[in-house]
């Protein structure tokens, strides 16, 4: 038995030593941004840190807990000179981090007063393959929208730097959430991308749809009254917010008709039930002919 156990145990111990060494490296918090609805953004720097789009890290704050590690998706792009995470205050540990960073105080917080942070990672996800396709569907549900902040930022940097060599030509982005207020920082990112792409006369590069799945009659009435305004009253975007859930069969058929003979990457960060739906649609809308349209499904579950 020991011959079968000693090999895996040795590899496990090596991995734990590497992760321990990596977590001991110095991390500097360069900026703390307070977003609406108790969401904070931590911008950090670490020597030798290299990331790809959509990856995640484990974070420990000894001032809050000396043992707890929590995973957070990176919301910065590899092209930026820092890496960042967005933390929504929803529990004891996040509340402690919020207070440790001085976000509960009105006065300006000096950088040397910020708490020490340990970072382990980054770790890979399916979203890294987004640049392998000419056409992609990005589907984020609730907090699952965070990996696509990194993706959309990186796409924009690559597009501005060298659009001719960028393989990715079209993005269909779907954001499903019960309440956009919790993710206003992401709506701000979409507003920035929307404005910049219009300046470059390439507004068709990114098509996005925002679906509010948790809505009541008063919200629907408010939506009907303001539907004719130039910008959406909820997000401030030109694309109007939709209510309910997408008809995925229609969405897949429409995209398949617009991109015949293409390999289309479908990327999801969301619950298992939605993953099953998108996987079935990807299979049923892919053609048997190798020269036809094919949907390649990739998922991250939470």
TrEMBL record:
One of its GO terms (molecular function) is metal ion binding. It catalyses: NADPH + 2 O2 = 2 superoxide + NADP(+) + H(+). One of its GO terms (biological process) is monoatomic ion transmembrane transport. Keywords: Cell membrane, Electron transport, FAD, Flavoprotein, Glycoprotein, Heme, Ion channel, Ion transport, Iron, Isopeptide bond, Membrane, Metal-binding, NADP, Oxidoreductase, Phosphoprotein, Transmembrane, Transmembrane helix, Transport, Ubl conjugation, Voltage-gated channel. It holds the Pfam family FAD_binding_8. Residues 19-129 form the FAD-binding FR-type domain. GO terms for cellular component: monoatomic ion channel complex; NADPH oxidase complex. It is found in: Cell membrane. It comes from the Eukaryota. Catalytic subunit of the phagocyte NADPH oxidase complex that mediates the transfer of electrons from cytosolic NADPH to O2 to produce the superoxide anion (O2(-)). In the activated complex, electrons are first transferred from NADPH to flavin adenine dinucleotide (FAD) and subsequently transferred via two heme molecules to molecular oxygen, producing superoxide through an outer-sphere reaction. This is NADPH oxidase 2. It comes from Galbula dea. The lineage of its organism: Eukaryota, Metazoa, Chordata, Craniata, Vertebrata.
């Amino acid at each position: 038995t020991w011959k079968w156990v000693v090999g895996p145990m040795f590899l496990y111990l090596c991995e734990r030593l590497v992760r321990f060494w990596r977590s001991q490296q110095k991390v500097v918090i360069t900026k703390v941004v307070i977003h609406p609805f108790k969401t904070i953004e931590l911008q950090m720097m670490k020597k030798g840190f290299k990331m790809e789009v959509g990856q995640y890290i484990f974070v420990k704050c000894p001032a809050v807990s000396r043992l707890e590690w929590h995973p957070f998706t990176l919301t910065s792009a590899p092209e930026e000179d820092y890496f960042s995470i967005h933390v929504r205050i929803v529990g004891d540990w996040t509340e402690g981090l919020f207070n440790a960073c001085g976000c509960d105080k009105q006065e300006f917080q000096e950088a040397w007063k910020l708490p020490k942070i340990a970072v382990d990672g980054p770790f890979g996800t399916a979203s890294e393959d987004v640049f392998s396709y000419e056409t992609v569907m990005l589907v984020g549900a609730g907090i699952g929208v965070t990996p696509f902040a990194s993706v959309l930022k990186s796409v924009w940097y690559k597009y501005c730097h060298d659009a001719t060599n960028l393989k990715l030509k079209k993005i269909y982005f779907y954001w499903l959430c019960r309440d956009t207020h919790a993710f206003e920082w992401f709506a701000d990112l979409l507003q920035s991308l929307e404005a910049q792409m219009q300046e470059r006369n390439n507004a068709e590069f990114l098509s996005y749809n925002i679906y509010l799945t948790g809505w009541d009659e008063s919200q629907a009435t408010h939506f009907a009254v303001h539907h004719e305004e130039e910008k959406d009253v909820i997000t401030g975007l030109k694309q109007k917010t939709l209510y309910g859930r997408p008809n995925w069969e229609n969405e897949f058929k429409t995209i398949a008709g617009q991109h015949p003979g293409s390999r289309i990457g479908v990327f999801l960060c969301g619950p298992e039930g939605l993953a099953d739906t998108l996987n079935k649609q990807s299979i049923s809308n892919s053609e048997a002919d190798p020269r036809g349209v094919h949907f390649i499904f990739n998922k991250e579950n939470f």
